[in-house]
Design brief:
alpha/beta
């Protein structure tokens, strides 16, 4: 399985940074690493970023409306994101769940909206520190996964991002064994639900991934890529992360 490195710029990014993205895309096209590369940008930059990268890397959205069209002032539909050049959309990021009270049911509706457009939905799940300390991590993740993804969709356009809330932006990560344990459980849940169709679903680990630890995390079994927040804002660091994909990553694991 080809890994996916997905930058998430969150509430950062102005037009003046588009040149850097274009230059990074050009640089990555020389001796390209064996990975899919995506940057999820503010919607305001998507169309211009798509032109700047010229297909050398992908661009995506960070959220979308669950509705397709209508009287929803201020919302942005999946189709609008695709129209601007996006090929993927993050849905259910913990910051959306926390600051915008997004429920699993709403996230599942957004997943359907993304799939309808033919884009990939990257569905985020993860436990709080209190839940980890209470030994609830696996149950919480399994429940979020089950309730944030509808049954009747194709799996070829689905990725799951395991992002423990306490690891996001904190400089802390779970131990390697803990990451593998959660990813293996996610894989079991996917297979139990969709059988062989679950095979192409990438499971990403996110939370304080940077150029210093990306390589070792990407080496772990059942880790099929990484979402990167803070370190994706510096294009040099992000390129380093993309280039830290282990040679033959897609062969040595699952
Ligand atoms: C994220 O919020 O999706 C993320 C991975 O953030 P960070 O890399 O900054 O921890």
């Amino acid at each position: 399985m080809r890994p996916l490195i997905a930058g998430n710029w969150k509430l950062h990014g102005l037009a003046r940074q588009l040149g850097e993205i274009g230059a990074m895309a050009s640089s990555l096209s020389v001796n390209p690493p064996a990975t899919d590369i995506l940057i999820c940008l503010p919607a305001t930059l998507l169309a211009r970023a798509a032109l700047a990268v010229a297909g050398r890397i992908a661009v995506g959205g960070q959220d979308c409306c669950s509705e397709i069209v209508g009287a929803f002032t201020g919302d942005i539909s999946a189709e609008m994101l695709r129209d601007a050049g996006a090929t993927a959309v993050i849905v259910g990021h913990s910051e959306r769940r926390q600051h915008h009270q997004e429920t699993n049911a709403l996230v599942a509706a957004k997943v359907v909206a993304v799939w309808r457009t033919g884009m990939m939905a990257i569905v985020c799940i993860g436990e709080t520190l209190a839940q980890r300390q209470a030994g609830e991590t696996l149950a919480v993740c399994a429940d979020q996964l089950a309730c944030s993804t509808p049954d009747d969709i194709g799996t070829s356009l689905l990725a799951v991002a395991y992002e423990p809330l306490w690891a996001i932006g904190s400089g802390r990560t779970p131990d390697q064994d803990e990451i593998v344990e959660v990813h293996q459980r996610i894989r079991q849940c996917l297979v139990a639900r969709w059988g062989a169709a679950a095979k192409p679903v990438r499971i990403l680990y996110g939370g304080s991934v940077g150029s210093a630890n990306a390589h070792e995390i990407l080496m772990l079994p059942e880790v099929n890529g990484v979402p990167v927040g803070g370190e994706s804002l510096n294009v040099r660091d992000f390129e380093k992360i993309c280039r830290s994909v282990p040679a033959g990553a897609s062969r040595i694991k699952n």
